[in-house]
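Let's practice the habit of predicting before peeking. Look at the sequence and jot down your guess about where helices and strands might fall. Then scroll down.
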Amino acid sequence: MIEVSLQRPRSLLDRLRRRGPRIVAVFSFRYDAHLVPDLLANVKPMVDGWISFDDRAGAGLFSDEPARRHALLSAARDIAARWVLAIDPDERLEARAASLLPRLTAGDDLAAYSVRIREMFAPDRYRVDGVWGRKWQYRIFRLPDGAFGPDTRALHGAWLPSDAGHKKRNTDLNLYHLKMIDPRRRAARRDLYNRLDPQLAYQSIGYDYLTDETGAVFETVTPERAYHPVHVDDGGLWMPDLRAVTT
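Done guessing? Here is the structure:
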């Protein structure tokens, strides 16, 4: 189910021009529904509203991610949103994005901006050695005027439509991924993806690295790069429990 919530009314000029909100957050939730209130608290200072996809009625371990993402982007198009911030309930964008996004989204060109994905091992600490320090994705992008298709990869696909011709630009904004904080979740994530992708068709390096802490190096979130609200981890799994699945 898609739900649209706009927190900032359109100006009279935008209504006359039939222009929608400048930027909306888009996300889906299922096993992590309880994380949504803090996600909204995180993005409210940054966006004009949000569009969510309630996937709690989804079938199987993992529902069709490309379809969910395309539905969210299509809903953003339906309300004439110009830009999207693509995010998940277990992610938090650093607070200073609130002052940077208006500038990044001020232009009319078809641009996409990257963020650094920081895999958290504590609410204020993330890992930076090897592959851990090289993760980034395009999560802030303008919606194209013409038709666009989703990334059709069943796993680890991109939010950014690959066929729209975006001008790709980098930022140093941190997007903090909270799921990896608990070692049980790191192991469960490894086991889930080994089950979903046993031939490593979607990630050639595999998934065992998720629980390998050999040579781990960490950095601490500095006050100027902090995110809000402060995360207090509940120790929950936030994903399907394979021990309870018999087929």
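How did you do? Residues 2-145+166-244 form one domain.
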